[in-house]
């Protein structure tokens, strides 16, 4: 008996429910009308390519408008710059980039070959941290430009000097990042490797380096940015190579279109180098892909 | 100086399964690390077959409570870790690791990363990694302490299956009295402050262990006995 009552109660509830829903539906039209329909613009803004088009296109547009108002003496227009890029190649100016890129590549790899082992030593052994940290930290915070005269005294103005400037600029971020990454390798991982009787060298290559890899990669990428900075500054400082051209284009005969064209080429080189680095990381560290997914 | 362990004197018979059970802080994990050579005792020594233990060796396998897998290595890569340290060549490592992988029922997960696996599956990898080097002594530090109840019971059964096929000497640390009785030939009961071995219980259940042991009155009685033993020395701590 009680069961039936209960069921009846449920039935009443069930019958009542649609009425409530109906009321809500009856209320709905005015509120729906007052709400704007989902706009196409909003949908577009969620697309990555559209955002990029708006941002980059906007910047270029503003650049172009300012250039047209200011005139070519102050700012070349985008078509002028594009034409100048062609001229850079046609007139052979671009060949000056050869040695410049060479010093970038040699300097960058030399810097990494110095930085990562030093970072491992500093992160792993208190002794090396004590010995090296004062030097690293002092030069790291110093204006590297102020040290260029010393490099010129030591290495002259040749390839050696230019490579050393790149090294000086590029070496510190990866040292500091590698040391930090190694220092923070979890105790559990170290203990595990010890329990499996891992020899010291394999401890570094198979445990410390891969565990610290995200730190090291971040340091290497910052190092690349600094290397490119060093590459240009080394030459501007002593008026040779690409640096000389960059400066010359702003003097007489003043060719700002060529200056902007060359600057654009340098940006393209930097972006390409960065992309290559990312590709190398994915190749060397398949796990990095998963790490990125987890981070999102 | 903190004295964690005092007057611990135990002898393990070859090819037996010994469980160390006790409250947290009784030094059972420390004792396990000393047996492995991961930690050095201030006084005293550990001898295995007459040899004094001074450092970890690949003749001992260690399974950790929190799995401690290398997150950047795949399941297969993790299992191969110890084999690499043993100097086993790549061509021999793969088949060996694959064989162990089947033993712990992880076929199909070869190229997964630990982060993509559940806790129970990660611990199977942990066990496989320890078994892969074919150690004569297997040390397990609360290996099922961080997985859920059902997974723990399944893993216990699988561990017994594997052990009964290839009886290694096992030292298994746990705070779970029932787990110790279900798995072990002997249960060494430890007490904290001062930390010492307070009792050794020979487990009367035969091999192969059957699931019914879990519900048997004999297990309940022994569990109560161990609990009484532990309680007499226990204090509630925050």
Q: Could you say which structural class the secondary elements and strand pairing of chain B correspond to?
A: alpha/beta
Fourth-level CATH superfamily of the largest domain in chain A: MetI-like
Weakly predicted, low-confidence segments of chain A: 1-28
Largest sheet of chain B: 6 strands, mixed
Shape of chain A: flat
Radius of gyration of chain B: 18 Å
Q: Quote the CATH topology of the largest domain in chain B.
A: Rossmann fold
> In total, how many domains does the architecture of chain A comprise?
2
- Please give the CATH class of the largest domain in chain A: Mainly Alpha
**Proportion of strand residues of chain B:** 15-25%
In the CATH scheme, what's the topology name of the largest domain in chain A?
MetI-like fold
Radius of gyration of chain A: 30 Å
Give structural notes.
- The complex is a heterodimer of chains A (296) and B (238).
- Chain A has 296 residues and is mainly alpha-helical.
- Chain A has 2 domains: 43-73; 93-294, Orthogonal Bundle (MetI-like fold), CATH 1.10.3720.10.
- Chain A has helices at 2-34, 40-45, 48-70, 78-90, 97-124, 126-141, 148-155, 159-170, 172-183, 187-195, 200-238, 241-250, 256-284, 287-295.
- The longest helix of chain B has 17 residues, at 149-165.
- Chain B is 37% helix and 16% strand.
- Chain B is an alpha/beta fold and 238 residues long.
- The two termini of chain B are 22 Å apart.
- The mean pLDDT of chain B is 90.
- Chain B has 2 domains: 1-53 and 138-238, 3-Layer(aba) Sandwich (Rossmann fold); 66-134, no CATH class.
- The radius of gyration of chain B is 18 Å and the shape is globular.
- In chain B, helix 2 packs across helix 3 (90-103), helix 3 packs across helix 4 (119-132) and helix 6 packs across helix 7.
- Chain A binds chain B through residues 188-189, 191-192, 194-199, 202, 206-207, 210-211, 213, 285, 287, 290, 294, and chain B through 36, 38, 55-58, 60, 62, 64, 66, 68, 70-73, 81-82, 84-85, 113, 115-116, 129, 133.
């Amino acid at each position: 008996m009680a069961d039936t009552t209960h069921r009846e109660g449920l039935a009443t509830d069930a019958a009542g429910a649609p009425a409530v829903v109906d009321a809500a539906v009856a209320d709905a039209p005015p509120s729906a009308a007052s709400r704007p329909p989902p706009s196409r613009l909003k949908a577009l803004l969620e697309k990555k390519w559209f955002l990029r088009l708006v941002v980059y296109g906007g910047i270029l547009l503003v650049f172009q408008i300012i250039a047209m108002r200011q005139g070519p003496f102050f700012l070349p227009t985008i078509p002028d710059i594009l034409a100048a890029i062609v001229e850079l190649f046609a007139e052979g100016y671009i060949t000056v980039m050869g040695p410049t890129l060479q010093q970038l590549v040699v300097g960058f790899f030399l810097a990494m070959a110095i930085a990562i082992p030093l970072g491992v030593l500093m992160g792993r052994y208190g002794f090396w941290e004590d010995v090296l940290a004062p030097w690293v930290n002092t030069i790291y915070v110093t204006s590297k430009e102020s040290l260029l005269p010393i490099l010129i005294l030591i290495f002259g103005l040749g390839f050696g000097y230019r490579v050393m400037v790149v090294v000086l600029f590029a070496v510190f971020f990866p040292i500091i990042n590698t040391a930090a990454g190694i220092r923070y390798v979890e105790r559990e991982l170290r203990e595990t490797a010890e329990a499996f009787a891992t020899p010291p060298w394999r401890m570094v290559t198979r445990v410390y380096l891969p565990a610290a890899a995200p730190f090291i990669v971040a340091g290497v990428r910052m190092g690349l940015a600094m290397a490119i900075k060093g590459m240009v500054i080394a030459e501007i400082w002593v008026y040779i190579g690409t640096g000389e051209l960059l400066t010359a284009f702003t003097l007489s005969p003043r060719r700002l279109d060529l200056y902007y064209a060359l600057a654009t080429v340098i940006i393209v080189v930097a972006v390409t180098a960065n992309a290559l680095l990312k590709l190398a990381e994915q190749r060397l560290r398949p796990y990095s892909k998963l790490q990125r997914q987890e981070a999102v | 100086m903190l004295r964690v362990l005092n007057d611990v004197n135990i002898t393990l018979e070859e090819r037996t399964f010994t469980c160390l059970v006790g409250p947290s802080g009784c030094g059972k994990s420390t004792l396990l690390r000393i047996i492995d050579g991961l930690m050095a005792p201030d006084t005293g020594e550990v001898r295995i077959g007459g040899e004094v233990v001074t450092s970890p060796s690949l003749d001992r396998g260690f399974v950790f409570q929190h799995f401690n897998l290398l997150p950047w290595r795949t399941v297969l890569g993790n299992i191969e870790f110890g084999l690499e340290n043993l100097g086993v060549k790549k061509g021999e490592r793969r088949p060996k690791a694959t064989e162990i992988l089947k033993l712990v029922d992880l076929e199909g997960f070869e190229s997964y990363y630990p982060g993509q696996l559940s806790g129970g599956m990660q611990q199977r990898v942990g066990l496989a990694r320890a078994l892969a080097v074919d150690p004569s002594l297997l040390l397990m530090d609360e290996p099922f302490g961080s997985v859920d109840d059902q997974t723990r019971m399944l893993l216990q059964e699988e561990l017994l299956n594997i052990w009964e096929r290839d009886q290694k000497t096992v030292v298994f640390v746990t705070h779970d009295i029932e787990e110790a009785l279900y798995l072990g030939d002997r249960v060494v009961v430890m007490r904290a402050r001062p930390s010492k071995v307070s009792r050794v219980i020979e487990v009367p259940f035969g091999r192969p262990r059957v699931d019914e042991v879990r519900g048997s009155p004999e297990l309940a009685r022994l569990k109560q006995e161990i609990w009484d033993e532990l309680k007499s020395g226990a204090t509630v701590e925050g």
